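Reviewer 2 asked us to include a model.

Predict the structure of this chain.
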Amino acid sequence: MHVSHSQALARRAFLQRCAQLAALGAAAPLGLNLAAMGEAAAMTAQDYKALVCVFLFGGNDYANTVVPFDAARHASYAGIRQNIALPREPLQATRLLPAQALAGGLEYALHPAMGGLANLFNDGQAAVLLNVGPLVVPTTRKQFNNRSVPLPPKLFSHNDQQSVWQSQAAEGATHGWGGKLGDLMLSANGNALFTCISLTGNNVLLAGQNTIQYQCTSAGAVAVAALNNSFFSQPAMRAAFAQLIQQPRSHWLEDAYTQVMRRGVGAQQQVSQALAGVRLGTTFPANNSLAEQLRMVAQLIGARAALGVKRQVFMVSLGGFDLHDNLLSRQPQLLQRVSEAMTAFYRATQELGVAQQVTAFTASDFGRTLSSNGDGADHGWGSHHVIVGGAVRGRALYGQPPPISVGNSDGPEDAWHVGQGRLLPSTSVGQFAATLAQWFGVSASDLPLVLPHIGNFGGADYPLNLGFMAN
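Predicted model (structure tokens):
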């Protein structure tokens, strides 16, 4: 077994950079020393780019999202899934038409509720990545069965696999690869506080060594709760409060508290003022929480100049995908929300003139089993995901199409299955993230600073750039 030591060396270099930042007072809440930070952070940027992670909490069922459409494989899929398979005829409307036909006559369609994303795919603004999931090292079915290589921690656990997708470590991890991207890009942003923004509460994806994730709601900036008290409605009281939080404190806990309070008050004012200057004409679907989050992301992107940012990472989410039962009745509405929200978001980036500079992608805890448990499917591993944006090399499916199988033999048809139709990922989350990171501006040599296991991948079988992003 070979495990690269480059991740240890990269971590050491990264910690050295962080030590330089700490020595220069980079923990100051609002005014970071960007001139000094320029020596420690690796990246600068003249243009604008943003990544938007659309996380589907619960473990989205891959087989009814990206569905085998060619007659032979659809028949195999329907034979295995039985009462939870989608019939072939309705899939005609969401059939994917790649610019280059897949080998062996393989064809796919998106779920019939995903018409918007299917249209984006067929128009060239979206792509599908097949069978991607967490891996520590390239892993074969035999190695998995023998446990002869390191595996992702606590496979099939919701909390842990959500964390592994976001940080490449189990629940309890403190830094995610989105936040580490932010660490490398802090010097590119005039206001580092708005580098990583969450519309879905606290998460590890956007947590960096020095990047502090800023949290918004679908309605905008979060106001400091105390200031909504009627006591502060009087100008004199607000002025007194502002003066208090500007004063340095001798006790470090008091001083830290006033710093956080200053940051919260200042950021809320800046975001609110910046958003006031953004007008979006794009219509987003009503009664769709994901669409509401993505609308706010679009508005924040529209306010990028006022916020002083060149590089941003966002996270939004939708829950409800843990469908051990009622898969056929509940997944369509969820996937319709995803499709309509991401389609509207792409249209908004077109309106803003940044479609080429913004890339949205789906992620989820894990896929689900191909075999049915009766009315749904159980926890799996690999899954299929969608990437949307003007810089995406669309009308294409990337990765390796997995055979339609439940993995009960040692034959080649079961090479990518580990039982019940659980997909053994043929592409790692690290490769997925590395491809996005390189488009974002991270050099290949700096990838280990962002992705701790990336040194274990490379070569023709596990490339560090999967090719779905144009430069």
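The two ends are 35 Å apart (CA to CA). The chain has a mean pLDDT of 87. We have added this to the supplementary material.
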